[in-house]
């Protein structure tokens, strides 16, 4: 990587053959926003439907390693009544199926600022009824989770030194145990996402003798 002098004017350091330079550090951050589309098994989709929702993603990058956290909320109308812990959830409920992902991945970088980033992690899924006051009823659901895996493909565009804009798409599968929530539900779901991201690495200053 080319070293860029911070100051072109003559300084005491330069008179001694030393210049101050800046390069990219190994640490960076990435922020994503995407629209996610989910596809469940037949029994789960007959209750939740095949729905979409926003996807907010925060990533710590350590060179080519990514450590990430995704928050994926949304609200749906149940497609049919279903019993949970002895109480029937009506179709008039407004239900939030909330997904939180914790994962790690690796970036394989190619020419033309294209990268392929497979990941592996854990999903935590929970359900919340947001109109309990209207229904005059409280509902409780078991929390569940499972292994997740997938990959993301990025096309990066350079904004300035060490900062990039990405247009990306990803696919993944979650081995989530929905039977823990309700015994008639299918386990697992498939998802695909389209989004935009900003990624940047912190600069590092150093001195070099010339």
List keywords for this structure.
210 residues; mainly beta; eight-stranded antiparallel β-barrel; 3 helices; 7% helix; 62% strand
Please describe what this structure looks like:
The chain has 210 residues and is mainly beta. The chain has one domain (4-209): Porin. 7% of the residues lie in helices and 62% in strands. The chain is built from three helices and twelve strands. An eight-stranded antiparallel beta barrel has the order 2-3-4-7-9-10-11-12. Strands 5-6 form a two-stranded antiparallel sheet. A hairpin with a 2-residue loop joins strand 5 and strand 6. The longest helix is centred in the N-terminal third of the chain and has 7 residues, at 42-48. It is elongated, with a radius of gyration of 23 Å. The two termini are 16 Å apart. The mean pLDDT is 90.
């Amino acid at each position: 990587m080319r070293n860029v002098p911070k100051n072109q004017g003559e300084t005491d350091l330069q008179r001694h053959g030393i210049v101050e330079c800046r390069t990219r550090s190994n640490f960076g951050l990435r922020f994503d926003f995407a629209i996610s589309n989910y596809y469940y098994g037949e029994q789960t989709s007959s209750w939740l439907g095949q729905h979409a929702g926003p996807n907010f993603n925060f990533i710590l990058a350590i060179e080519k390693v990514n450590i990430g956290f995704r928050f994926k909320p949304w609200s749906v109308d149940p497609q049919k009544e279903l019993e949970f812990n002895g109480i029937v959830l009506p179709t008039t409920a407004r239900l939030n199926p909330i997904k939180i992902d914790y994962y790690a991945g690796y970036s394989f970088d190619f020419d033309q600022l294209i990268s392929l980033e497979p990941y592996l992690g854990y999903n935590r899924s929970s359900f919340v009824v947001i109109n309990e006051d209207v229904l005059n009823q409280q509902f409780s659901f078991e929390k569940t989770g499972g292994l997740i895996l997938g990959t993301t493909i990025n096309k990066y565009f350079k904004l300035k030194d060490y900062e990039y804009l990405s247009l990306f798409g990803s696919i993944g599968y979650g081995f989530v145990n929905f039977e823990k929530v309700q015994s008639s539900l299918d386990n697992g779901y498939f998802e695909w996402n389209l989004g935009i991201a900003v990624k940047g690495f912190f600069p590092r200053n150093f001195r070099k003798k010339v």
